[in-house]
Design goal:
Blueprint lengths: L14 H22 L3 E3 L4 E3 L8 H21 L4 H5 L2 E4 L8 H15 L4 H4 L10 H6 L2 E4 L15
Antiparallel strand pairs: 1-2, 3-4
Helix pairs in contact: 1-2, 2-4
């Protein structure tokens, strides 16, 4: 006997949950970038220290951009989630609940870069939007939802013989 299930109401993920997921992803990206970008000798430290991406180091900025592009676009198009999104149980989907294609993920990423230009206003918009969409979501036609928890599984009674 199979259990019948009804439709699941999806809930949009809010600003703080999405920000937390992004923070996890940003730290992950910095660690990955630090593993690839060479360590530089810093005169004030007396030893080798990590040179984080900055305008003074355009090569490291290029590596960070390339890695972040690959990280986000691959994660969204492959599984609909980055590791940070998995940790906070959220997922990016299309409004019709279908998966995000590679091309949509690429548009979403590039639009996300543009959201930073006006002092991050494109991301802050999430807090005030009815569907919790940032400008990048609107441009790519995506939404971010909370991943519903599966219903509890009940053990089936076996007939006694």
């Amino acid at each position: 006997m199979t259990a019948k299930t009804g439709p699941i109401a999806l809930e949009f993920a809010g600003f703080w949950r999405r920000f937390g997921a992004f923070a996890i992803d940003a730290v992950s990206l910095l660690v990955i970038t630090a593993a690839v970008v060479p360590w530089e000798q810093q005169p004030h430290s007396g030893g080798a220290s990590l040179s984080l991406p900055s305008p003074d180091n355009p090569a490291s900025l290029g590596v960070l951009f390339a890695f972040s592009l690959a990280y986000f676009v691959a994660s969204w198009s492959w599984h609909g989630q980055t590791p940070g999104m998995m940790a906070l149980s959220i997922r990016v989907i299309r409004p019709d609940a279908t998966a995000v294609a590679f091309s949509t993920a690429l548009v979403r990423y590039l639009a996300g870069v543009l959201c930073l230009v006006p002092i991050g206003l494109g991301f802050i918009w999430i807090a005030f939007d009815r569907h919790k969409q940032g400008w990048h979501d609107k441009l790519a036609d995506t939404v971010v939802i909370k991943v519903p928890r599966p219903p509890p599984v009940r053990a089936q009674a076996t007939p006694s013989g």
